[in-house]
Design a protein that fits this description.
Layout (H helix, E strand, L loop, with lengths): L2 H9 L9 H4 L5 E16 L2 E15 L2 E8 L15 H6 L10 H9 L3 H13 L5 E6 L5 E4 L7 H25 L23
Parallel strand pairs: 3-4
Antiparallel strand pairs: 1-2, 2-3, 4-5
Helix pairs in contact: 5-6
């Protein structure tokens, strides 16, 4: 069976095992709501409202609430649990493009790992006007194990603060940098081999 076929089999709710208790507490009922569904909203950055959309692999309603799943055949990257409490937030709030913190973006990229799950939570919340409970990467090469964004000790109030306040701030900062930056410094890693612009930065 080809990799895309395996991925489709994993996404099909009839072929998925009961989702991991790590995402929503004790095992309970699960109702898949959407498969590969388009969601859209806007991002506000630098005084601009920017259309923003994406396709979510799967959205479940579980005992804890809405859980968004993204299926991965490769390396899993997501923000560390301490990311939401680190000093990066103060540095982002004080960032001045006229006198930039040169180490901020590399530090942010390292701590964040991937912005995908936060972006999906933002998409769902704004498109459906409902705060989701969590999002998780599903590691297909490891029996479909789920790697949730949040940890169990983060209660509903803490999660809501992250989704409602911190994630829009994070996305606005990233997009604002993309709009206003005069240059983009490359951060070499394994993805360079597939980048169409690798020659421009000497990789």
């Amino acid at each position: 069976m080809s990799e895309p076929s395996i991925r489709r089999e994993r996404i099909n709710p009839a072929n998925r095992a009961q989702p991991s208790a790590l995402v929503h507490g004790p095992s309970g009922t699960t109702k898949p709501l959407y498969l590969e569904e388009r969601f859209s909203t806007t991002l506000t950055a630098n005084g601009l409202d920017i259309p923003f959309f994406g396709f979510l692999d799967r959205v479940d309603r579980r005992d804890g609430g809405i859980v968004i799943l993204d299926y991965k055949t490769g390396t899993i990257k997501k923000p560390a649990a301490k990311f939401w409490e680190g000093d990066l937030w103060e540095r982002m709030s004080k960032h001045d493009p006229a006198a930039p913190d040169e180490s901020l973006l590399p530090d942010l990229a390292k701590a964040l790992g991937s912005v995908q799950l936060p972006a999906y939570l933002h998409l769902y919340r704004n498109d459906r006007d409902e705060i989701p409970w969590d999002a998780a990467l599903v590691e297909l090469k490891n029996k479909g194990e789920e790697k949730p964004l949040f940890i169990n000790k983060q209660d509903e109030e803490a999660r809501n603060e992250i989704i409602v306040d911190q994630i829009p701030e994070l996305l606005g900062f990233i997009v604002g940098h993309m709009i206003g930056a005069e240059t983009f410094e490359g951060i070499p890693d394994t993805h360079c081999q597939w980048c169409s612009f690798r020659g421009n930065c000497g990789q």
